[in-house]
Design a protein that fits this description.
The chain is of the alpha/beta class. It has 14 helices and 19 strands.
């Protein structure tokens, strides 16, 4: 297959060398067209060496071949990665100020796939959203970017999908176009008369997107933050949770294509855009919200730090500190085990649902963190348990995290570390893998 690989001017251009290698090793003939800015990140010599073809970004090279017309007409697939905000804007408005944008205008019926990469604010800017909508309305496949570490210390949606994911999506898109062409050739002027062919074609673009949106079509409920148990109208029992890890999970699940419902207890960070918010304060409120939300959820992730105990009695007025009154005695009662109850309700209803718990543990003379975590996994009976060691300057309120993912099936523990967005991406990837294994082969 003849592929044109357009390369935009972003730091993620270095990843596209691996994508080019995947295309060529699969036997495809690839012509690379970098933008002028892209050559500041990866030089022309690299693209020529990996593709085996001369590389240019000017319409004034090889003028005798009318290069942009030839490339547009001969291409059987065009892939643009990274598709920067600038490149998306130029493509959406039909600009033709270099060889790549000229070639895109000449593509005709050739399938085009664009893999965006940029900072989160740029990806979520209304101008970029409008440009993406315009391109998709014209039949261009624009992948959702991945979520994770970006340039500098930033993290969030806007990361270029991994080369393997783009390759998979590109091959699926090319397969859909080939199937459409075959159907058209077979049935003459009525290319879509066969409902089986129509159904098959409809499924292939979805498969292309599933490479980077593995939770598309699923509902994911996530709890985040710390519950607060009131003592009186002023005071409460709480914990150090900031909600950062739960918010990162919500963003990662959203970027994986899921409909996300966030059960938000006290959080020190804003909820991500594009998710449904349910505000809760106490463990009892969280229990009610979680049981209600779980009824239509495919995945439930209980990442909130839930108070194990609450005051047995809540004073109606502020408890005063007075010299003539003895120090108050606060009696505590146990809060319900929400995670265990969610598992019991699911199992009683024979619901096909994945439940993930979080365990914030400390070791002591009786055992280490993983000893207590494994015992907790056995008691809770959830499918996965994400474990982290907590303490002052550990996890709560921090921007980084280190976790171990335990599985009820006894598979090898999985470690993940880095920013909380990195950890969230690892957890969502593991959930996607668990869901894929749970689906029987067709």
């Amino acid at each position: 297959m003849r592929i044109v690989l357009g390369v935009g001017g972003g730091i993620a251009a270095y990843k596209v060398a691996s994508l080019l290698r995947l295309f060529t090793e699969a036997g495809h003939d690839v012509t690379v067209i970098p933008t002028e800015a892209a050559t500041r990140f990866v030089g022309v010599a690299t693209w020529e060496a990996l593709s085996g073809h001369p590389v240019s970004n000017s319409v004034f090279d090889a003028v005798h071949t009318v290069n942009h017309v030839r490339l547009g007409h001969e291409a059987e697939l065009i892939v643009v990665a990274p598709a920067t905000a600038d490149l998306l804007a130029r493509a959406a408005t039909g600009q033709a100020d270099d060889l790549l944008t000229n070639t895109l205008l000449m593509a005709g019926d050739c399938p085009v796939l664009m893999a965006p990469a940029m900072h989160t604010e740029m990806w979520q800017h209304p101008a970029t959203e409008a440009n993406v909508e315009t391109l998709r309305s014209r039949g261009v496949t624009v992948l959702e970017p991945a979520s994770g570490r970006l340039t500098g210390a930033d993290s969030g949606p806007g990361r270029l999908p991994e080369p393997e994911a783009i390759f998979t999506a590109a091959m699926a898109l090319a397969g859909a176009e080939a199937a459409a062409a075959n159907a058209s050739a077979t049935s003459g002027a009525m290319p879509a008369v066969d409902p089986d062919v129509t159904t098959a074609l409809a499924a292939v673009p979805a498969a292309a997107q599933s490479a980077v949106t593995p939770l598309a079509g699923l509902t994911v409920t996530i709890s985040a933050g710390g519950t607060r148990e009131p003592l009186d109208p002023v005071r409460f029992l709480g914990n150090r949770s900031s909600g950062k890890q739960g918010v990162a999970l919500a963003a990662a699940a959203r970027d994986a294509g899921a409909r996300v419902r966030l059960l938000a207890a006290h959080m020190e960070v804003p909820a991500p855009a594009g998710v449904e918010i349910v505000q809760v304060e106490t463990a009892l409120e969280l229990r009610e919200a979680a049981l209600h939300a779980a009824a239509d959820s495919d995945v439930v992730i209980m990442a909130a730090a839930v108070a194990d105990f609450r005051p047995a009695d809540v004073a109606g007025t502020k408890i005063k500190k007075r010299d003539d009154v003895a120090d108050p005695m606060i009696n505590l009662v146990r809060n319900p085990d929400i995670l265990r109850e969610l598992v019991e309700v699911r199992d009683a209803a024979s619901r096909n649902q994945l439940i993930v718990g979080f365990a914030a543990e400390t070791g002591d003379a009786g055992g280490d963190v993983l000893d207590y975590a494994r015992a907790k996994l056995h008691r809770k009976a959830c499918d996965l348990l994400v474990v982290n060691q907590v303490g002052r300057d550990l996890v709560f309120g921090e921007d980084t995290n280190t976790v171990v993912i335990l599985s009820r099936d006894g598979s090898e523990p999985q470690e993940a570390s880095g920013s909380k967005s990195d950890v969230a991406a690892a957890v969502i990837d593991r959930i996607s893998a668990e869901l894929s294994r749970a689906v029987p082969p067709a």
